[in-house]
Structures are given as structure tokens and as C-alpha cells.
Predict the structure.
Amino acid sequence: MKLKELIQPLLFVNVTGDVETEVTGIHNDSRVVEAGNVFVCTKGANMDGHDYIPQAIERGATVIVVEQEVEQVEGIVYVHVPSTVRAASLMVDRFYSSPTSKLKLIGVTGTNGKTTTTNLIEHLLTFHQHATGVIGTIEIRYPGFQEEAKLTTPVCYDLQRYFHNMVEADVEYGVMEVSSHALHLGRVHGCQFKTAVFTNLTQDHLDYHKTMDAYGQAKSLLFSQLGNDYAQPKYAVLNADDPWSEAYAGVTSAQLITYGLSEQALVRATDINITASGTSFSLQTPIGTTTIQTSLIGKFNVYNLLAAISAVLPEGLTLEQVKAAIEGVKGVAGRFETVQQGQPFAVVVDYAHTPDSLENVLNTARQLEPRKLICVVGCGGDRDRTKRPIMADIAIQLADYVYFTSDNPRTEDPAAILEDMTGHLSAEHYTSIVDRKAAIEQAIAGAGEGDIIVIAGKGHENYQIIGTEKTHFDDKEVARDKLIELGYNASS
Ligand SMILES: CC(=O)N[C@H]1[C@@H](OP(=O)(O)OP(=O)(O)OC[C@H]2O[C@@H](n3ccc(=O)[nH]c3=O)[C@H](O)[C@@H]2O)O[C@H](CO)[C@@H](O)[C@@H]1O[C@H](C)C(=O)N[C@@H](C)C(=O)N[C@H](CCC(=O)O)C(=O)O
Ligand SMILES: Nc1ncnc2c1ncn2[C@@H]1O[C@H](COP(=O)(O)OP(=O)(O)OP(=O)(O)O)[C@@H](O)[C@H]1O
Ligand SMILES: N[C@H](CCC[C@H](N)C(=O)O)C(=O)O
Ligand SMILES: [Mg+2]
């Protein structure tokens, strides 16, 4: 593609050099730039891309997009724009030929439940032969492709490339998690959503957004970005039981589909029954009523199911099709996932790393009536500090015994994170062990018949970040190894 085509949608653009230059790619990270690429200089939290122009040129960048005056090198084309972040979303979209206009794109936002809900939507659509791609916390996948995710919502350069490749692979639906960071940083500016889904909003990420209000506002961007188009209707799927939904309904002209347990919801669950082997409920919708039976456990998963069902109703799926698809749902890696080696107690690995999710997962485990409920939990470093004592209080209140331990300490002192969590506690039914492996092992060694151990915080993660080092670590693996060491054998 020629540079002039790439910058065609931009306003107030000033080019020094040849607009006929052929461009081979576009990125904002000098470390991944290749010959003939456009390098876009964006300012980040720690660094400024304008400082990396020499490295980008060294790696072969031929076009540099800037928002400030920079020293110019001969033979290089410079594109000056008012905002590189805003320009980038338009250029990247154009470079990949507006892939999201060729996909039916469903975005899911909310503090908890995004991964679960996107996976459920994917399952509902693929079960009925619609080729579907998913982008989220665990991985990026579509028929014939799978890659581990680096971020929940990739930066626009990667995101639009994935969408482009999905279109090339004849994918019909794109289902993605849209984090508040991504919305705030404009990572999805170039995306044309058909449907936007809101799960819930509770405390997290205050390190980044500072206040709950700012956090809630960031999520509203998905709904204000949705707009409406009578030729191609748009849908906002909102949780009727979350107070933030009213604000989101107010900023979109898309058609509303509300879901929840309360009477005003259009898509509603009643007669919920939760057991250790699954959950059932009566599903009431504007197109009829049916009974849903699922292996997923917990009231929060009823919400996730309602959100996913609401998102596919505009796609023409009947309730019979929805019901049939949900019966085959297996659950999502690291979300209430059990480790079973034949031991007489349950070991549950769950990605709960926020106050609300921890409360939900412990309440769900309690509903299964364990003899004792044991919790292993920590909080991530370099993330929202204010949630630490709150999560500790929840664990202390809801579990019979708690092992406080490290999550991903990152560059913080693990012992100091534990102190943030437990410093104010007066209860005695807990212990703090910095080493997560030792904490999991002790919890398992101390468990008795009928107990449930919930190992919270890391779910599917197969690593631990201590300092800046990322090493292999897997809660399920550690738990399984300990069970084997204790003599449990799955086949016996
Ligand atoms: C706050 C945030 O989202 N930061 C992301 C952002 O980093 P940044 O803009 O601060 O980048 P920076 O390091 O200051 O660098 C500035 C610029 O210089 C460039 N640079 C830098 C160094 C270099 O050698 N060459 C170079 O060109 C960078 O590419 C960048 O364009 O852009 C980087 C890639 O371009 C991301 O890796 C980085 O994510 C960090 C690692 C991160 O952890 N983000 C988390 C908080 C995040 O986004 N999480 C959300 C939410 C998850 C949830 O809901 O739970 C997610 O969507 O994953
Ligand atoms: N609808 C929900 N409401 C509250 N808690 C939930 C809900 N769904 C899942 N959870 C809890 O939150 C944890 C994370 O769920 P999930 O991975 O689906 O959320 P997420 O929004 O994708 O999280 P992240 O922002 O980290 O990507 C689960 O392990 C479970 O404990
Ligand atoms: N996407 C979330 C994941 C947190 C997972 C938890 N294990 C932690 O490391 O805090 C974040 O980056 O805040
Ligand atoms: Mg997720």
C-alpha cells in the first residue's frame, strides 16, 4: 500500500517526503519494526516513542509518524499529525482494509466475566456452524490459529492484524474482551462493533483509573462508540442488575437487550438451582421460555450465560439451539476448574483476583456445603493496592482458613504486599506464606474429607512474575503434584 492511501482519512496531516512510498507494515514499537514499516511515535506511561526513532530507522522504518518536531534524517518520510494515537487507529484500520467492517464484531467489557462470556458466545456460535474468532485474556484463536495472549485487549497494531487474518480465514464473527485500559488508551478506536456487552462493574484497576467513576466512564466508551446504523443494527447488552447499566444505556443509540435476575430484565433467569455438578435455571426471553442445564457452577455464571445468550439472540439463534449448545459447555480454563486425583476433598483453581470475584467464588464454594472451606489467595504487585485489604477481609469472612500468599509480585516486595493484605486483621484463622508453591502444598496437606480448597487469583496463568522475571508456575500443576506425592492416584 502507498503512504498516500494510508494517510487518506487523516485531517491536518503534514508530510515531508514522498507520499508514493510503499509501506510494508505499521507499528509503534521500534523493537518489532521491519524493513519498509511505518513507525508511529506514541507516548506511553513510562517512555516516549519519539525517543526510539533512531532504533526504528535502524531496523528499516521508512516512514515516521510524529506529533512533535523531531530531527529529520534524509531519505525518511515524516508524517506530522495532531495525535499519533488517534491517527494510528485510522491508519492501521486502513492498512488492513477495515477488517472489522467485514466481521460481525461482539465486544465484551466489565470487571469480571469477560473471558467466560466471550468463550460462551464463541461456543454458542461455533456450535451452530458459524466460524468464530476470539480475542481475550487467555489466547487469540480462530479456526486454524491459536496464539497465547500478551494483553486482554491487544494494541491496535496487533488487534487489526488478527482481524485481518480472521477475515482471510473466512471467520464470520469476532468476539473480543475489551478492557477498560484498552478503551481508555484508544486500542479499539478502529473497531466497528455490532454488539457491545456489559457484564458488571466492581472495584479493580484503581491504580490506573484512580476512581470508580473514571473506571466506569472508561467502560462507557464501548457503548458510546457503538452508535447506530439502520442498515446494520447495533445492540447493547446490559446487566439490568448493575447500576452502571443505566449510564451505558444513556450513551448509546443502539438497541438495548437487558438481562439479569430482576423482573425488568428482558432476558431473565428464574428458579436457579446450583449443585456441585452444575446449575439449572428457567430462561425467560421475549421470544419464549426454556430450561437451561449447564455444568458451570455459580450464580455469577448464570449472569455470564444470560449475557452470552442475549448477545446471540440478534443473530437469529432459537432457544432450542441455545439450550442445545449450552448443554455442551465444558467450562473455561482456570475458572472454577477442579483438580481431581481421587482425593476425598475438592481442589478448585479460579482466576478470582478482584474483591467481587473472590466473594463470588467463595460464596459459590460455600453453597456446595463443604466441611471446611479453605482459601489460598494473594494480590498482584504493581496493581491496585486498595483492593488488597478488601480481598483479605473477604477471604477471612467467607473461608474457614486462609493461606495468604503471593500472586504475581512483579516489582513489589512480596512480603510488603502480604502486609498490605493482612496488616489490619485481628482474626487468627490464617497464615501468610510468601512462597505460593509452599502455600498450595500446605493447604492440600492439611485438607480433610469433604473440604473445598479454593486456590484463587491465577487461574489459567502458567507463569509467575517475580521482579521482572517470568518463570513457569501453574496452580493446577502444583496442586496435582502434591496430591500425587500424598499418594492419590486418579485411576484408583
Ligand atoms: C498501561 C498499559 O496498558 N501499557 C501498555 C502500553 O505501554 P506504554 O504505552 O506505557 O509503553 P511504554 O513502555 O511507556 O513505551 C512508550 C512507547 O515507546 C515505544 N517503545 C518503547 C521501548 C522501545 O524500545 N521502543 C519503543 O518503540 C513503545 O512501543 C510505546 O509505543 O503499551 C505496551 C505495548 O505497546 C503494553 O505492553 C503496555 O501494557 C502493559 C505491559 C500492561 O501490563 N498493561 C496492562 C495493565 C493492561 O493493559 N491490562 C489490560 C487490562 C486487563 C484486565 O482487564 O484485567 C489489558 O487489556 O490487558
Ligand atoms: N459475572 C461475574 N461476576 C462476578 N465474578 C465473576 C463473573 N464471572 C466470573 N467471575 C469471577 O471472576 C473470575 C474471572 O473471570 P473471567 O476471567 O471470566 O473475567 P474477566 O473479566 O475476563 O477477567 P480479566 O479482567 O482479568 O480478564 C472468575 O474466575 C470468577 O471467580
Ligand atoms: N489482567 C489483570 C490480571 C491480573 C491477574 C493476577 N494474577 C495478577 O497478576 O494480579 C491485570 O493485569 O491486572
Ligand atoms: Mg479476561
Q: What stands out?
A: The chain has three domains: 3-95, 99-327, 337-485. The domain at 99-327 is CATH 3.40.1190.10 (UDP-N-acetylmuramoyl-L-alanine:D-glutamate ligase).
